[in-house]
Amino acid sequence: MTLPGSAEVVVIGGGVVGVSTAFHLAEAGVQVLLLERDELGSGSTCKAAGGVRAQFSDPVNIELGQRSLRAFEDFARRPGGEIDLKQHGYLFLLSEPADVEAFESGVRLQNEFGVPSRMLTVAEACELSPYAVPDGLLAAAFSPTDGHCTPEAVVQGYAQAARRHGAVIRRHCAVTGIDVSGGQITAVRTEHGPVATSTVVCAAGAWSASVGEFAGVELPVRPLRRQILVTEPVPDLPPRLPFTIDFATSFYFHDEGPGLLIGMSDPDQEYGFDLRTDDRWLGRLSAAVERRAPRLAEVGVAHGWAGLYEVTPDHNALVGEADGPGRFLYATGFSGHGFLQGPAIGEVLRDLVLGRRPVVDVSALDLRRFATAEIRPEHNCV
């Protein structure tokens, strides 16, 4: 493998955040090298459920989600490529009074930013998502422009466009260290040799903590396994089924080809990099399906997989530039929101590298918030 001797910016990580950053930097005329230790998107991105939304409770997440939605809508033109975007909406089914109150407040805030979300009655929600039953539900929240698309296609679209603009992308090239001299980055070391650089962007997802250690930067990101199932074909699948989430349990489903993609968090899951699938979570999932969408209980499972959330203490991302060494930037810890925020985050990192005011003010996501106890909990996590 040949590596350039130097690069203005080295991006570490070839998931959606990394390739989006590489594209936006290269488009701006920056000499970029992206390093991925495996295949592009092989970490968390291509294991994601593919949801894209702007329904959040935190203003910065609303802005990042909304700006990214616009980028997904325009993806065929820039950067180019078909991503199978389906804007059938996100539907949050609510069964706890406190959640209804929180989502009502969230919808008001989202509307201020131009997001067309709204609260629905239980009957309206069950009409939109006919597999859901009304038992125990109090209300729902819905935004018609949310939806889902194909993560692999997004990664390839950004990567191909980045190359067209001159970016160099190297797969199967693990980073082994970062050289620092006089408080400044001087090189990135890889298993195929060193590359001189003064600027590093850590976009390594669940593996970001170890990359931070190379530069002496503590990134509080931990990996947490999440499992997903895809069902066998479902007869009479509604043509515009929204991405439906039973918020109290986190059980969710959306259409995936002729079947459904189904997932749910596992509160007993321990942190770690284990990507093996197992049946331990199926009992809790089955109970949630029986209660909220009993018609789906008899649908067979075609296949499944496991991926990693990159979790921070407040379930909000880390985006910014470290106090030291100079020019170590990071975008990680998205806690399940990295894919949907990837387009906007690439723009933000471009701006931070170039010393511009970012298109979205992400100062609230700076690493320093944990030192000052200014955490920003995100309520609308799945």
Automatic annotation (TrEMBL):
Oxidoreductase keyword on record: yes
GO molecular function terms noted in the UniProt entry: oxidoreductase activity
Keywords in alphabetical order: Oxidoreductase
Superkingdom per UniProt: Bacteria
GO CC field: cytoplasm
UniProt-listed Pfam families: DAO
Family annotation (Gene3D superfamilies): D-Amino Acid Oxidase, subunit A, domain 2 (3.30.9.10), FAD/NAD(P)-binding domain (3.50.50.60)
FAD dependent oxidoreductase domain residues: 9-352
UniProt-listed PANTHER family: FAD-DEPENDENT OXIDOREDUCTASE DOMAIN-CONTAINING PROTEIN 1 (PTHR13847:SF287), SARCOSINE DEHYDROGENASE-RELATED (PTHR13847)
Name recorded for this polypeptide: Sarcosine oxidase subunit beta
Source organism of the structure: Saccharopolyspora antimicrobica
